[in-house]
Amino acid sequence: MFTGIITHLGKVDSITKSCYTFSADRSFFQKLGQGGSVAVNGVCLTVNARPKTYLFSIEVMPETVKKTTIGTLKLGDYVNLELPLSADALFEGHMVQGHVDGTGMIKKIQSEGNSHIFTIKVKSDLSYYLIDKGSIAVNGISLTIIKAGQSSFTVGVIPYTWKTTMLQYSKTGDPVNIEVDILAKYVEKFIAPHRRKLYEAQ
Questions:
Q1: Chain segment 50-67, per-residue pLDDT in tens
Q2: Which fold has domain 8-82?
Q3: Most C-beta atoms within 10 A of its C-beta, which of 19, 31, 37, 58?
């Protein structure tokens, strides 16, 4: 499990078919183990190899390419990196599994005081789970929803998050990975049968 608190940036070093190699700084690289988990732009992946110092590789299957923005990455692109939460670590952000639910598109980026306001377009099957002041992971970043709409939502990015994540390099039209709050999905799963019974009884 992850928390959505991004502390490191990586960079796409090479792409060979389904294999992606990223560069990372020393402090992050030293904590990576072959076969271990790592979140890349919010996607939980397995470290396949560490071919050289400060480089690590992952392999992606077709489902990952279909569901996420991994397939749109290009050489030199910056990515958010996060290691799994350890049992004795301080829990911050919110529960992020790294199981991306779908993608969205950056519709607008506005400066507001010391922050940046992002409007992100999503499909209705994702917006269904969004609420004002609720949590959401955008490219693996734990953010608070300012306003949830039927086809889009807005989030605010503080200066620290702007400087330490790939959002500083993003632009209008860019795709982003979206993971909705796992608690919302569990609640939906639990109440769905009861809601159907109530509907049938009417």
A1: 878 899 999 999 999 999
A2: Elongation Factor Tu (Ef-tu); domain 3 (2.40.30)
A3: 58
Output the six-digit token pair for 149.
């709409």
Best CA proximity match to 120, nearest among 153, 151, 158, 157: 153
Q: What is the pLDDT of residue 196?
A: 62
C-alpha span between 42 and 153 (Å, rounded): 18
Contact 19, 59 (CB under 8 A): yes
Q: What pTM was estimated for this model as a whole?
A: 0.90
* Residue 69 identity (one-letter amino acid): T
The CATH architecture that domain 102-187 belongs to is Beta Barrel (2.40)
Q: In the chain, which segments carry CATH 2.40.30.20?
A: 8-82, 102-187
Q: Which residues pair with 177 in a beta bridge?
A: 103
**Confidence at residue 52, expressed as pLDDT on a 0 to 100 scale:** 82
Give residue-wise pLDDT tens across range 17-54: 899 999 999 999 989 888 999 999 999 999 999 878 89
Q: Residues near 91 by Cβ (< 8 Å), separated by ≥ 6? A: 3, 85
Instruction: With CA atoms as reference, report the closest residue to 5 among 80, 58, 63.
Output: 80
CB 166 within 8 A of CB 139: yes
